[in-house]
Sequence to fold (216 residues):
Amino acid sequence: MRKLVLIILISLLLNILSIHIQAQNNKQYFISLAPAYEVLYSQLEIRAESFSFGVGLFNQYKFHISGNVNYTFGKSLPETNLRTVKFHRISPGIKMKWLLLGDNRYKSDKYFDNLRLCLDFASHYNFAFTELYREDMLTNEKLVPYLSVDLGFSLLIPYGYVAKNTIHFLNHSDLYLEILGSAIINTDISILNSTGSSIDQVTTAGKLALNWMYYF
Fold:
């Protein structure tokens, strides 16, 4: 597992250097704001909301890469043993977006001709301050660091030809609906630490995000 993580990090670094060299010549930058909703299961089913801020580089809309910081807060759903997990999480990381289908700029006055489909990848290192309650009484708290990897797709939500080409603010921005699956590399982020529980080495999660980008 450690070798796999190392290979991923090295490949990300090489990609960053490559895109950075290209962007230095073209001077193409963007910022992104992305609220998201996440569902994960680590002994308990946990629902979370997050907000991400990123600064990145792009290559004619075909490839985006950005450094991001996410803030996430959430808690587990009620269950029969009256256990509740609450957490707040800070996650610095890298996000990438690669154009798969669609035009890389608005060319047509037909609404659906402006759609774009992208492949999305992200990797974050998370610092989650987690609290475990039993019958509303705090019984354990811990800072849980872990690596997570996201993979999924995003679909551009078009503003429409007229709006895109008559409003300067919209002409310099895009809005994407992102559907991502996450692999969380940690044995247990619910900090239940029960000896009778079977815990996987990797926890899976699903994430739905709305990512707004503004281009300079």
Summary: The first strand starts at residue 29 and ends at 42. Residues 61 and 104 are 6 Å apart (CA to CA). The mean pLDDT is 79.
